[in-house]
Design goal:
By secondary structure, the chain is of the alpha/beta class. α3 links the parallel β1 and β2. The chain folds into two domains: 191 residues, Rossmann fold (3-Layer(aba) Sandwich), CATH 3.40.50.150; 83 residues, Orthogonal Bundle (DNA polymerase, domain 1). The protein starts with 9 loop residues before the first helix and ends with a strand. It has 16 helices and seven strands. The protein binds S-adenosylmethionine. S-adenosylmethionine binds next to α3.
Amino acid sequence: MATKHVPILTREVIELLLGENSCIKATRAPLKYVLDFTLGGGGHTRAMLDHIRLHDLPLVVVGNDQDLRVIDRAQEVFKPEILKGSLILSHQKFGQISSAYLKSLGIDPAHIAATFADLGFSSDQIEDETRGLSFMRDGPLDMRLSPELSPVPLYDKLLAASDHELCEVFRAYGEERFCVSMSRAIKQAQARRTFENSTKYLSDLLVAQLPSWARRGKIHGATRAFQSLRIWVNDEMGELERLLMFQGTELVAGARVGFLSFHETEDRMVKTAFKDKNLWQKCGKKPWVPGRQEITLNPRARSAKLRVATKL
Ligand SMILES: C[S@@+](CC[C@H](N)C(=O)[O-])C[C@H]1O[C@@H](n2cnc3c(N)ncnc32)[C@H](O)[C@@H]1O
């Protein structure tokens, strides 16, 4: 099936990671692999493969995702590239990727030339109501981007959490100012046994906690709360922290890394990691952001920030 996901800042990603000024040409080391940690709809991976073919670069792309449906789709869509050996697929959470895991795929971490991570979820995932990621479509309270690799769906996590813990999730990942009343409402509904395993139900419950002026805002009243619950269920900040640590310790000097983030906390984590002058040399003083034209064509691009650095 066709993807609805539109890749963001593709030209910049390719130019910065694989272009003239990247390490690819300059290095004499036997660098061989480009890791796309977040394959998704495959837009960036496709652009990498096209660039590599066009410029006859001696590189193999590794397309990784935690979502098995993404991998299944890629098996079909990228069949010729997989058969040719120019693409290797990997189904893993990027925070779990270690040197031992890469070696099990036949990849020597010392031969990684560049890596890329486009954080968060894809349009295909949010539009699939069985995932329960959106309040626009009714579905189960699941939110796992990988039902295979993440054992606990949102409904069970909500049952197990205290209202203090929930409030902290809403505050930390969504800056939700009504976190106290929202978390209390969830715990009260569970105690009354009226709490339903439905995104529509949860969205209505959360919005009902807002004062009337806050319900009239431009963004839906459940937006921040849903975003924070998704980040929590998928341990997105923990995953990013582990990936940054892996790259800082395992990549060889000269490897380029790029991160496309959509959340302020994620961007801050990447920015802070790149400040370590013993490990990274930043590319550019500021992050790359999409221009007005890209945002008009793809509104999801509006909060994107791309940061790139070279391993020292
Ligand atoms: C924004 S989409 C990537 C879109 C892709 N660059 C494209 O051009 O179509 C993010 C993807 O990353 C995956 N993902 C998110 N967190 C992950 C993690 N911790 N480990 C592996 N994959 C992850 C999601 O399942 C999703 O498919």
